Every structure is written in C-alpha cells, then in structure tokens.
Amino acid sequence: MSSPCYISGLGLHLPRTAMTNADLERMVDTSDEWIVTRTGITNRYFAQGDEPCSVLAFNAARKALDNAGLAPQDLTHIFVGTFSGDYNLPTTACLLQDMLGLKGLPAFDLAAACSGFLYCLETARAFTCLHPEARILVVGSEVCTSRVNFEDRTTCVLFGDGAGAAIVTGAANPGPVKVLDAMLKADGSVGGLLTIHGGGSACKPVLGQPVGPEYFVQMNGRDVFKYAVRCMAEVSETVLERNGLTADDVDLIIPHQANIRIIEAIAKKLDVGMDKVYVNVDRIGNTSAASIPIALTEAVATGRIQPGMKVLLSSFGGGFTWASALLQF
Length: 329
Description:
Elements: E1 6-13, E2 17-20, H1 21-25, H2 32-39, E3 43-46, H3 53-68, E4 77-81, H4 92-99, E5 107-110, H5 116-130, E6 135-143, H6 153-156, E7 161-169, E8 177-186, E9 194-195, E10 218-219, H7 221-241, E11 252-255, H8 260-270, H9 281-284, H10 291-301, E12 310-317, E13 321-328
Parallel strand pairs: 4-5, 4-6, 11-12
Antiparallel strand pairs: 1-7, 1-8, 2-3, 6-7, 8-13, 9-10, 12-13
C-alpha cells in the first residue's frame, strides 16, 4: 500500500501571443475550416524569443506556489516534464531552480513527451513514499513551436506553447487533492510513428549543415490516432477497475488535449458523454506535457471541479508513452 500523496497547489502560464487560425492562414497553406474540422482548434499561444521553456515554467511555478501558500524555499525537489527545454544542457529544471533562487535541491527533466506531467506526478508520488515531508514542484512546460515545421500543415496547426505546475506533497503535509492512483505505460516498438530525430546521438548535428525536417515533429497522424485512443482508454479503465470504479463514478475526465477527434473518441470508448469531459484544445491547442496541468488548473479555477469530486486524467505521447491518474478533490 502506497503512502498518501497530495496536490497542494496548481498554476498555469500561457505566452502573451495568441495565434488564431486566421494568423496561421498567413503563414501556411491552410484554412480555418480545414483546421477546425480536423482538430477543433481555433486558437493557440506561441512563445516569443524571451519566453523559453524555463520562463513559462517559472511563471506557472510561482502561481502554483502562491496557490499552495508556499515560498520557493519550502520546496524539496523540482521535476520538469518537457521535450522542448531551453537547451540539452543545462536542464530546464536546473534553470528553473536558479530562477526560483534555490540551490542544492534535486532537479531534473523527464522526457515522456505529452505524458511528461503524469510521468512526473507518479515519480513525485514515489518520492513522497520515501520522503513524506517532501514538497515537490512538478511542472509540464513546452515550447512546442520550437520543434514544429511550419511547412508541414498537418502538424504545425496542432501545437501551442504553455506551462502548468503542481505542488505535490507527502503525508506530512497533506493538501486538498489526494492522488488516489496512477499508472504509466510505454511501447518503444512503435515510436517511429511520432518522432523528432534531429539533434540526437543517432542523428547528430554537423557543423555547417542545414537544419532539415528531421529536427521537427514528424507524425503518422492516422496511426497515432488509433494508438492514442486505444491506449488512453485502456489505461484509464485499468486505473478505474483496480480502484473498484467505472467511468460512471468519475465526475470529470481530463484527457490530453491533442485534438477534438481523439478526445471525442476516448469519451465514446469510455461510454461517457462529452459533458463529463474537460475540453480546452479549441482555445489552447496541443501543449504536450503542459496540456494536463493547464486543463486541471483551469477546471479548478473556473469551478468545473468542486470539492468531493473524483477526476480522471489520461495522456498519450511520443515514445509511445501513455498514462492515467485518479484524483480525489
């Protein structure tokens, strides 16, 4: 039996520049009708040069700390889920630590693509078992647009930038939200369906050579769709079953905000109405690891989540990775 784990505060931050479908029409061969029909997205946010991944993470982190009534000095660990960090080295978590005026506490990035936040949440849950006094800053922060090819209209319209953060605490510092359960999954055999190869040791940059499409998101959308729906539904059902629940017992489902078709297909698989599913992909787009914490923070702030509710989170990302978590408010 695991020790209790809690979420004591939440925060989100979006870049200052909103990008509508009309804006994208001026950048790439697309149209509002084409984007909305296939993705449900009408708006997203693009980070500018002075808004790298660490800056988005810092702003979300400060809001989460304020929400929890804590100061940066109260933290014991920093975990950042991202595929679009400021640099390969130093890690975004180390940059964030310095921005918060801290030294010494463990800080690392975790790469699980769009499942990054839930992977970090489960890692934090494990740490609080060992350290019940822990106060862990868990952040999902992405500048997806730094890895998007704006000549590929099938992918560039999907993504936006942003960050969401949570303060995760152990039994010594219980918070208002209890993490009841979580499950992580992965399958590297199909990782080639969603890739960013350029810059890795198997696809090394060569001084003086131009940057090619391999440095940006490349995706087999049809196959990714099928895997995403099946995997997210299955892991969600498994988490519910081992807690003696069904989807009917959950008050709200927050899936990764990939696109509206995937979200609707997951609802159908779980046999729930869309009134039970939180959607903000239309306003924010796919923000990868930031997707779940942004949506969770919004749902609490707007009153969509009330005390006493059970909330199911589910995500899917490149790797492939997928995950689910069950929260009790």
